[in-house]
Amino acid sequence: METVSTNAAHGGIQGVYKHASRETGTDMTFSVFVPPHADGAKLPVVWYLSGLTCTHANVTEKGEYRRLCAELGLIFVAPDTSPRGEDVADDVDKAYDFGLGAGFYVDATQQPFARHYRMWSYVTDELPGLIAENFPADSDRQSIMGHSMGGHGALTIGLTFPDRYKAVSAFAPIVAPSQVPWGHKALPGYLGDDKAAWRKHDAVALIEDGARVDALLVDQGEADGFLAEQLKPQLLEAACARAGIDLTLRMQPGYDHSYYFISTFMEDHLRWHARRLG
């Protein structure tokens, strides 16, 4: 693992790291904030998954999480959103919503994407192992959150591994990719036409098929330009109501899809996670 950069931040360390990934077959970059802590301490970990077009750096530069993570004693990990490199396949039209920067947190089965686009295994297996080996992380106290496509990833991963992630939350998530244009492009492109495979990467479908967590926190801006066509939080609300999942869905007037929205409510989410992480 190569250290790209580290800086002191709120008494802790903010670092950017690169490693050769066995899952994606490429060099992957991720960011980690480690709060101040006593020697030998093991700290809870919050995973943050970013959205379309993003890298690890978007939340690192704009997320406003360091002060709270230092106060609450939380390690904050931000992976990239897709593999990258000259030999990594991209959308033929270089569109923003598929290919580079748009891995959708799945393990692709379709060519030419199957070789590198293994973001599900990278985020749920390989990178957690690397974090546990190199940082003072308590693997028994993990939680996950994300924005937009990353909110989709956080919800689907949290629902799939409810015993691993003690808290799950999202900002403006894609809750039902099987039912919206972004998903109609990404899911068949990565996973093929078998819609049963899509359901494992669709939060609403997972809940319909029996996946459960105790509680979810979702913030959604009412002025979000993607709200009506791509995000559809009412579908998650209905699924949670039927399943008996305690969903806190907060519609925030005046807020759009940007990091101004995320940074405003990041403190609420981190405190929500900290209470559940212990």
Automatic annotation (TrEMBL):
The keyword Nuclease does not apply. One of its GO terms (molecular function) is carboxylic ester hydrolase activity. Its EC number is 3.1.2.12. It comes from the Bacteria. Keywords: Hydrolase, Serine esterase. It catalyses: S-formylglutathione + H2O = formate + glutathione + H(+). The active site is at S148 (charge relay system), D224 (charge relay system), H257 (charge relay system). One of its GO terms (cellular component) is cytosol. NCBIfam families: fghA_ester_D. Belongs to the esterase D family. Serine hydrolase involved in the detoxification of formaldehyde. This is S-formylglutathione hydrolase. The lineage of its organism: Bacteria, Pseudomonadati, Pseudomonadota, Alphaproteobacteria, Hyphomicrobiales. The gene is fghA.
